[in-house]
Structure formats: C-alpha cells, structure tokens
Design brief:
about 250 residues; alpha/beta; Rossmann fold; 4 strands; about 10% strand; binds zinc ion
C-alpha cells in the first residue's frame, strides 16, 4: 500500500494533515503497443515508476510527494491515430489539461510539479515555458522515465516503442498484462530521405509506413529481471530529482 504517496489509493483522511513538498504527474497515452502490451502501457509504467520514486524520496530524504493519476491523453503520429481506439490529444488539449492541474495545485499552495512522461510523442517544453510566465511561483519540470538511464546498459536491443525496454519493465510490474508469445518483431523501416534519418530535420513518422505491428524494437529478449534492474535505477534517479527540487536550490548563487 502506498497510501501517503499515491492518489489512486489514498483518501482525504490520510493526506489532510500531511505537508506535501512536490506533486508528481505521470503522463502517458492511449495507443497500440505491438500485439502484446496493453493500450495503457505508457500510463501504467509512468505511474509505477513515479510511485517507486516517490517512495524512495520519502525513505531517503524525507521528501513527501503525491503521485497524481496518470493522464492518458497522448500526442499521436499519423498512421497510429487511425488505429482502433488510439486517442490523439492535440497540443491545445494537453496544454489545457496541464494548465488546469497546475492552477489547481498552485491554489492549494503547491510550488513543485514534476511530469514523469511515458510516451515519446509527448513534448511539454513550450507549454511549461508559457506556464512559467503565467505562474512564476510554480516550478514545473518534465522528464522521460525511459531515458533517465542509458538503455544500452540494461538491454540487448532497446528500440522505440513496445520494445525490449518497455516490455521488460511491464513484465516486472505486471506480468499478467504481457503476452510475449503474441508479440510481433517490431521491425521498422527508415525514411527514404537520408537527411531525415540523419535528423537534419524532423517530421512525424507515419506509423503504418514504418511498422507492421505498431512496435519499433524487438521485444523478444525482454525479461522481468532486466525490467526490475532498469526500473530500480530509473526510480532512483527520479527520487534524487524529487529530493533536489523539493529541498535544494535549483540555481547556484
Ligand atoms: Zn509506450
């Protein structure tokens, strides 16, 4: 039970007398994840990493974080958003959601909000810049949990989406939600335009032109053990982040 740190499990009676230093917002998506992972994978993993990090922050430095319910509205590429039940959230929608969450928390006295992002299509930088103008006394930070530690140190063949990394971490937290035997190979095609492959410019990848099974990266070598080691390392990094943002100065003198 995480009754002090996870809003999905707690009640007003547990939180009303506690002083919270920081709010944590897991943000995912609702989208196909190859043929073997649930649509809600990005929400589930961002949430579980956030809760582990919040628990570590409480244990190691006494910082009290509350993990909010994950946001399921993610930004989707063309070719993915046409698939059944994939939900694309526009920039304006995501900004409205973040603005409402930030202004509610701020009115309650919260001054620190960290987004733990689980979906590669989400990008919060410009909306956070706007909110920094509107709410200068609320610090909003955003980090991608899957990029907090070098994936190549933990996995044989990390990819982009529903890959060995995501599959392993899901096998660690929720093995009952993974059906690896049904997974496609997650093979992806590069662009014909070489300069796009070399990232001279960015365009959203048309998912159906890139992947047959919606996956990018082969999940075949995923194991719960790899997932546990990576999740622990990532949660440790986010716990340190929470402690630093809650207690220390952000800037040097
Ligand atoms: Zn994902």
């Amino acid at each position: 039970m995480n009754r002090e740190i996870d809003l999905s499990e707690t009640c007003y009676g547990r939180v009303r007398d506690l002083q919270y230093d920081l709010a944590v917002l897991p943000w995912g998506a609702t989208e196909p994840h190859n043929l073997h992972l649930p649509y809600l994978t990005d929400c589930i993993l961002a949430h579980d990493i956030a809760v582990d990090a919040a628990r570590k922050a409480l244990e190691t430095c006494g910082v009290c974080c509350m993990v909010l319910p994950p946001v399921s509205m993610g930004s989707q590429n063309p070719g993915q958003r046409e698939l059944p039940f994939c939900i694309h959230a526009r920039y304006e929608t995501q900004k409205a959601i973040l603005t409402d969450i930030a202004s509610s928390l701020r009115a309650q006295g919260m001054r620190r909000l960290v987004i733990v992002n689980g979906h590669g299509g989400n990008c919060f930088k410009n909306m956070i810049r706007d909110l920094a103008v509107e709410m200068p006394d609320l610090l909003i930070a955003a980090g991608d949990w899957y990029a907090a530690c070098p994936a190549q140190d933990f996995f044989d063949e990390p990819g982009d989406h529903a890959d060995e990394l995501e599959t392993s971490v899901m096998m660690h937290y929720h093995p009952e939600l993974v059906n690896l035997a049904e997974a496609g190979p997650g093979t992806s095609k590069p662009f014909a335009a070489r300069m796009l492959n070399e990232k001279v410019a960015w365009v959203p990848r048309d998912w159906r032109r890139v992947s047959q099974d919606t996956g990018i990266g082969d999940p075949a070598n995923a194991t719960a053990g790899k997932g546990r080691r990576f999740a622990e390392a990532v949660a440790g990094r986010f716990a340190e982040l929470f402690c630093e943002l809650a207690r220390g100065p952000v800037y040097r003198d």
